[in-house]
Amino acid sequence: MLRKSISIVLSLGFWAVGTAQAQENIGGNKTVVQSPVVHEDNAVTIRLAAKTQGEVYVIGNWMSGGKEKMLRDSLGLYYTTPSLSSDLYMYNLEMDGVVVNDPLNVYIVRDVANTFNYFLTKGAQADFYQIQDVPHGTVAKRWYDSPTLGMTRRMTVYTPAGYEQSEKALPVLYLLHGMGGDEEAWATLGRATQILDNMIAQGKVKPMIVVMPNGHVSNAAAPGESAKGQYPINFFTPDVGSGKMEESFMDIVQFVESNYRVKKEKSTRAIAGLSMGGSHTLFTSAYLNNHFDYVGLFSAAFRMNDKVQSPVFSNFEQNLAKQRDNGYKLYWIGMGKEDFLYKVGEDYRKRLDAIGMKYTYRESEGGHTWSNWRLYLTEFLPLLF
């Protein structure tokens, strides 16, 4: 009964507030309640224009686990965060045990099979993630043929401002997502395109093309974006740890180098990835051990399925030694102190130490989060090319 009452009241509340600013003039002028509101001290107020008597909670990624109850005032329900650091934050509401989005916040992002509202606080780091008044690059969804996999697949490609008007060839970064992600993850959750626009405009990063492929090779594209249709999203697809992404990676490189004006030397290619994409990065860069001068591992996993047989894995030690001997300009590793893969990363660094393979190590606060991965990208990009 409580759930039904909440549903009725919220429906009326959302109608009264939400339709006031629709393009079609339905419902007339109503009191406008804004959510969220970012204050000068980076505290943020989230509001819900509802008169329900049930408890409503905020679940946010700035919390150290759990949820926090919304309070009541004359406008309905509200919750104010403590002062937050400069970053992008995601949250949901919980009503009668059901997790929902904030109906007053139209800014929503998907992470694997869940959607979240988000907001950005003020300050230097979040400024990289905002859309600023600077020249903007182009973001394209490109379909490419993968002969190795026997399928046509989709990737996201960023080209910097001025690429279309120039004849200059550019270096390339291949940027890989984590488990459950797809070719949209870095551009949406990672704010990669905003970061690139802003840092290139500030002269902190050299203009480059950034290629964001889909690392789940059993899928042609992001959910709902292929002939597979609208299907339940699987976090752990059958291809995880199979070596097929690494084995087919040259299909991606060859498409890019055949269809974009890019430099084709080792010194002008970089590869980086987070979590599963970090695993793909370390194995791909060793497998193609004379192709990339810049390697970035963000909270990287290692072997994700030790039952699989593949030359990517069986020859890894020899490939890694060849990568060392062939030389490279940067092997960059970032890991959060509270990351559940911390020990995996520690063991991998010992493996590198044992063969005398030089690397740069960056340890940050926090865990296995987009907050860290966005941070790592802003620190990695200026070191390229």
TrEMBL record:
Residues 1-22 form the signal peptide. Keywords: Signal. The keyword Signal applies. It holds the Pfam family Esterase. One of its GO terms (molecular function) is acyltransferase activity, transferring groups other than amino-acyl groups. InterPro entries: AB_hydrolase_fold, Esterase-like, Ig_E-set, Mycobacterial_A85_antigen. SUPFAM superfamilies: alpha/beta-Hydrolases, E set domains. PANTHER family: DIACYLGLYCEROL ACYLTRANSFERASE_MYCOLYLTRANSFERASE AG85A, ENTEROCHELIN ESTERASE-RELATED. This is Enterochelin esterase. The lineage of its organism: Bacteria, Pseudomonadati, Bacteroidota, Sphingobacteriia, Sphingobacteriales.
